[in-house]
């Protein structure tokens, strides 16, 4: 074998597992495998997980914080206006460079698949060209999936639909939208219908920014679910954000959840950004704004967590750490039970992998040899510690390494260092 990891724990609770890698694939996986590796690593009981997956990101704006100024109000709408100021000043080389730098951060964090929305409301499609170039360049180490995103509104922004179609023709993978930003509810619903029909005709997936508002009457998710069902696109459509669901009437939600389940529409929450941007017009009590994650999960609907933004007009923090995203999602959704915490880990690994339709993802024989060895024994411990990525492996090769966190102590009569893991 090219590579064997000994004595790993897995997210499903199995322990003492060896993982044998040959030719970039997992050749065998099980307890005490009788094989030799050209390289062998002792996991020492640490958690080997499939790579982190970010279901929702904006790579065209990442690492642009402060350009040309910071978002003073902290609102979504000022962020969109600020991005509108920055867009005409974008230069392709600088955009590519920022995206490549973020990709380096992602790999260091074990984040090896990202779905990024790319704004198509710029006639030049400069960001589309730039991110297609980035997608080619990072392909050996990151699966980058692009969504054609009409940031300024499909119907509201002149030429947006033509630009979106051009972007798809250039190689963008997924059809996006932003119905709550159209001029009227009716136009929002019309944009959903047009985009879903276009995607169905092209055989493409759909992922819309949908109802990213505190307005409980923003119900475009209903139309998105209906169009998904009508066009037979079950399992290929996601609604991102869905923050209006936080504020909706409970009776209405009791009808909406089964409709979403029937349609096979997935939900993508963005905890760091939703908790930051929503509720900005409230005094007190102030809404959290994140969509109803536990209720969606209980209804059998796939829910992933996305990072959404890192150092851009909407958010001035972040470093590509999906464990930080899971940590925030867990808190905002009050998902503190053991099963619920494990579901938060799945929301940044296996669930988004399913939403993106990643081929060969997982820790089973035959899957790509892509995994992360974490400085933690379980998914819950990994979230608690935002654990160091001891090893990041892509197609059987180590692409990043980090030392475990063991601060040195200088206290008489106490241990020389601290290990935050329980029972070690
Ligand atoms: Fe977004």
What would your notes on this structure say?
The protein folds into 2 domains: 3-50 and 362-401, Urease, subunit C, domain 1 (Roll), CATH 2.30.40.10; 52-356, Metal-dependent hydrolases (TIM Barrel). Helix content is 34%, strand content 20%. It contains 14 helices and 16 strands. It has helices at residues 76-86, 92-108, 126-138, 160-170, 185-202, 220-230, 244-247, 250-263, 271-277, 293-298, 322-332, 338-346, 350-356, 379-385; strands at residues 3-8, 17-22, 25-31, 39-42, 48-49, 52-57, 111-119, 143-149, 174-175, 205-210, 237-241, 265-269, 303-305, 371-374, 389-394, 397-401. It has an 8-stranded parallel beta sheet with strand order 6-7-8-9-10-11-12-13, with helices on both faces. Strands 3-2-1-4 form a 4-stranded mixed beta sheet, with no helix packed on it. Strands 5-14-15-16 form a 4-stranded antiparallel beta sheet, with no helix packed on it. The radius of gyration is 22 Å and the shape is globular. The two termini are 30 Å apart. The mean pLDDT is 97. The structure holds fe (ii) ion (FE2). Fe (ii) ion (FE2) binds next to loops.
């Amino acid at each position: 074998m090219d590579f064997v990891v000994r004595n790993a724990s897995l997210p499903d609770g199995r322990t003492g597992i060896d993982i044998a890698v040959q030719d970039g694939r997992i050749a065998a996986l099980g307890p005490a495998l009788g094989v030799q590796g050209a390289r062998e690593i002792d996991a020492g009981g640490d958690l080997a997980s499939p790579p982190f997956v970010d279901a929702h990101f904006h790579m065209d704006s990442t690492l642009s914080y402060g350009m040309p100024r910071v978002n003073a109000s902290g609102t979504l709408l000022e962020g969109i206006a600020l991005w509108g100021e920055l867009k005409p000043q974008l230069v392709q080389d600088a955009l590519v460079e920022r995206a490549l730098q973020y990709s380096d951060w992602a790999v260091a964090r074990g984040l090896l698949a990202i779905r990024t929305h790319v704004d198509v409301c710029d006639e030049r499609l400069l960001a589309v060209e730039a991110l297609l170039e980035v997608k080619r360049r990072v392909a050996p180490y990151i699966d980058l999936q692009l969504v054609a995103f009409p940031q300024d509104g499909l119907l509201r922004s002149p030429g947006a639909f033509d630009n979106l179609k051009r972007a798809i023709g250039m190689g963008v993978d997924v059809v996006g939208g932003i119905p709550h930003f159209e001029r009227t509810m009716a136009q929002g619903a019309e944009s959903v219908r047009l985009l879903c029909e276009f995607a169905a005709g092209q055989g493409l997936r759909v992922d819309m920014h949908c109802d990213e508002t505190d307005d409980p009457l923003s119900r475009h998710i209903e139309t998105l679910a209906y169009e998904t069902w009508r066009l037979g696109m079950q399992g290929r459509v996601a609604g991102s954000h869905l923050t209006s669901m936080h504020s909706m009437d409970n009776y209405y939600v009791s009808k909406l959840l089964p409709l979403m389940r029937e349609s096979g529409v997935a939900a993508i929450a963005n905890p760091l950004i939703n908790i930051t941007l929503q509720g900005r017009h409230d005094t007190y009590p102030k809404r959290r704004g994140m969509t109803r994650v536990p209720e969606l999960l209980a209804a059998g609907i796939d829910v992933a967590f996305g990072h959404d933004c890192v150092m851009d007009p909407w958010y001035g923090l972040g470093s590509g750490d999906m464990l930080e995203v899971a940590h925030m999602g867990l808190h905002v959704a009050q998902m503190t039970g053991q099963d619920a915490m494990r579901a938060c880990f799945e929301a940044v690994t296996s669930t988004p992998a399913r939403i993106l339709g990643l081929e060969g993802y997982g820790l089973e024989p035959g899957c790509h040899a892509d995994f992360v060895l974490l400085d933690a024994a379980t998914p819950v411990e990994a979230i608690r510690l935002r654990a160091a990525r001891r090893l990041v492996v892509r197609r059987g090769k180590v692409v990043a390494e980090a030392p475990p966190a063991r601060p040195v102590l200088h206290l008489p009569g106490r241990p020389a260092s601290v290990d935050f893991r329980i029972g070690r």
